[in-house]
Design a protein that fits this description.
The chain is mainly β. Helices cover 0% and strands 83% of the residues. It has a five-stranded antiparallel sheet with strand order 1-2-3-4-5, with no helix packed on it.
Length: 103
């Protein structure tokens, strides 16, 4: 199951900002190795902040451009026998984001 929520403020006819949270879900993988069997469970989520530009074509149609940053996190937990080469992972990173669209 995944989900997204966001709030936005249209500050001007041609400009707005949006803040959002994305939850990409929980993923489970089983593994079997020399040390035994186990389960790795990962979750992925992130925060998004975008500046949004609007270019109206008609009163009901606009082109949209967005530019912003995403701060995402991958968190992996291990249950069961853990091989020496496999360790729990918790990593957070910030990346550039952009998009084009219409409404």
């Amino acid at each position: 199951m995944a989900g997204k929520g966001f709030v936005g403020w249209r500050l001007h006819k041609h400009f707005g900002i949006e803040l959002g949270y994305d939850y990409f879900g929980k993923f489970t993988n089983e593994y079997l190795g020399p040390a035994g069997a186990g389960v790795a469970t990962s979750t992925v989520d992130g925060w998004v902040l975008d500046a949004v530009g609007y270019l109206p074509f008609t009163p009901n149609m606009s082109a949209i451009g967005r530019l912003g940053v995403v701060n995402g996190k991958l968190d992996t937990q291990l249950l069961g026998a853990t091989p020496p080469t496999l360790a729990p992972i918790s990593k957070r990173s910030t990346n550039f984001a952009w998009g084009l669209g219409a409404q």
